[in-house]
Amino acid sequence: CLALVGESGSGKTLSALAIVRLLTPPLTVTQGQVRLLGEDLLAASERRLCELRGQQLSMVFESPSTMLDPFVSVGELVMRPIRLHEKLSRSAAKERAKAALGSVGLANPSRQFRKYPHELSQGDSQRVMLAMSLVCNPSLVILDEPTSSMDTTSQAQLIDALERLRARTHIGALLISHDVGLVVEVATDVAVMYRGRIVERGTLQQVMSSPTHPYTRGLLASIPPLHVPGLPHERRLPTIPWSTGSASNTGCRFRGRCAYRHSKPRGFERCDEQEPTLTEIEPGHSVRCHFREQLS
């Protein structure tokens, strides 16, 4: 499970939509490859994509209430991928759909099966979307802020359901999230994105325990700590300063907000003139920064 993290507008959801080829014109992919089980999705025909979506590749969108067809019952929605991709009878598909609804933590699947999307809470709508995405056991599922509309208890239930499903089916996952707590619970690897670029990538342990890029450090430092009774807790959280002077794509895209660059270390001019490359600093851990050796 790779977690893609970063502030709003950094390109996380756009990257996910490019993977499943759902970009809205005039947006288009101009270069690169997206390989799934050895097949390049960007070169696949629309017919082939229809075969892959739902069966080998699926996506859970952030706003389920706008994605579920209001005129179709929950049961029919979950049965659609089964009936489309697998030759099962209606009764067999119905039982499989109910099992999928139960596996994502939806209470009383038989009763929920007959409901319509407008009768569901935001959390239950998210669970229905997850069931639709997982019912055909895809190789990869993309989860775009899957717990954003849930309360804490529902989040915990969904995390538990995801872990059990991944342990049983070995589904690969791309998790897009602002929730570092969710990332720590679910992810095995982390990629940090800033303005359309991956600035740091590594295992969960590497990125969380040894963050190297100044942006990654700023994100982790901005997480509010838990209040422990008896210990002082009234302190101002550190923030990443905003600057409008780094809009150009020339040089490092983070330079206008980088505290280390503003300390003017020797050779800091490179930050203004040359974009750094994503370079490995240890096995499996890569950073996009001119001063990665000094910061690691």
Give me a quick take on this structure.
The protein is an alpha/beta fold.
Describe it for me?
This protein is an alpha/beta fold and 296 residues long. 39% of the residues lie in helices and 15% in strands. It has helices at residues 12-19, 46-52, 64-67, 74-85, 90-103, 109-113, 122-134, 152-169, 180-186, 204-209, 214-221, 259-262, 270-273, 292-295; strands spanning 2-5, 35-36, 39-40, 57-60, 140-144, 172-176, 189-194, 197-203, 278-282, 285-288. Strand 5 (140-144), helix 8 and strand 6 form a beta-alpha-beta unit. The mean pLDDT is 88.
Rg over CA atoms, rounded to whole Å, is 21 Å
Largest sheet features: 8 strands, mixed
How would you spell out the order of helices and strands?
Answer: EHEEHEHHHHHEHEHEEHHHHEEH
Cα separation of the termini? 25 Å
Please count the helical segments. 14
Secondary structure category: alpha/beta
- Adjacency order of strands in the biggest sheet: 4-5-6-1-7-8-10-9
Helix content: 25-40%
Low-confidence stretches: none
The residue-averaged pLDDT reads: 88
Number of strands: 10
What is the approximate shape? globular
What percent strand?
Answer: 5-15%
Comma- or semicolon-separated keywords:
single chain; 296 residues; alpha/beta; eight-stranded mixed β-sheet; 14 helices; 10 strands; 39% helix; globular
